[in-house]
Amino acid sequence: xxxxxxxxxxxxxxxxxxxxxxxxxxxxxxxxxxxxxxxxxxxxxxxxxxxxxxxxxxxxxxxxxxxxxxxxxxxxxxxxxxxxxxxxxxxxxxxxxxxxxxxxxxxxxxxxx
Amino acid sequence: xxxxxxxxxxxxxxxxxxxxxxxxxxxxxxxxxxxxxxxxxxxxxxxxxxxxxxxxxxxxxxxxxxxxxxxxxxxxxxxxxxxxxxxxxxxxxxxxxxxxxxxxxxxxxx
Lengths: 113, 110
Hints:
The structure holds two protein chains of two kinds. Chain A is mainly β. Chain A is built from no helices and eleven strands. Helix content of chain A is 0%, strand content 50%. In chain A, strands 2, 4, 5, 6, 9, 10 and 11 form a seven-stranded mixed sheet that branches. Chain B is mainly β. Helix content of chain B is 0%, strand content 55%. The N and C termini of chain B lie far apart (37 Å). The A-B interface holds A 35, 40-43, 90, 99-107 and B 8, 31-32, 34, 36, 42-46, 49, 51, 88, 90, 92, 96, 98, 100-103.
């Protein structure tokens, strides 16, 4: 069963805590992305990776960190430095050749208590 | 000027009508253009992409691209209540970055 999985679906965080969001894919896509979506807003790019052991900051990387140790996995850590982390987090994957269309996982909804 | 712009809506159309969703972009060298559908509380789903001027049809959906006017649109024929969603336009720019628009909310009234 091919696709992109994100876990957990819902996550609650206390102030000052770090939390890690999981993203796994078996589509054999080289590129992986993390986006944040706030209510009524578009998607904002946090980090992306085009190859294992390499990643780049997006438009809103402050307060977040990532790793890409395996092609299939691209976890996102939301640190305590992120002052307003409540949002819908979306992981996407895509190929590097062709039109660069991206495919999204089901998302993780993070709420700060 | 924002890189990718869409009317936020909501756009309301009666069932069976044609829904027309519009998107403009600022980078004249943009290469590929995508339309995503996002139901409330769900993740975006790719429904169309287009890369050359003209029309591209897939079932009830038609994407139209006019690079000279920096304009891409999505037409949904015979709109159904199940088409009610937010539609995101995305553009792959000349510097290889994909930029998403803010989305247009569509409501199809039975």
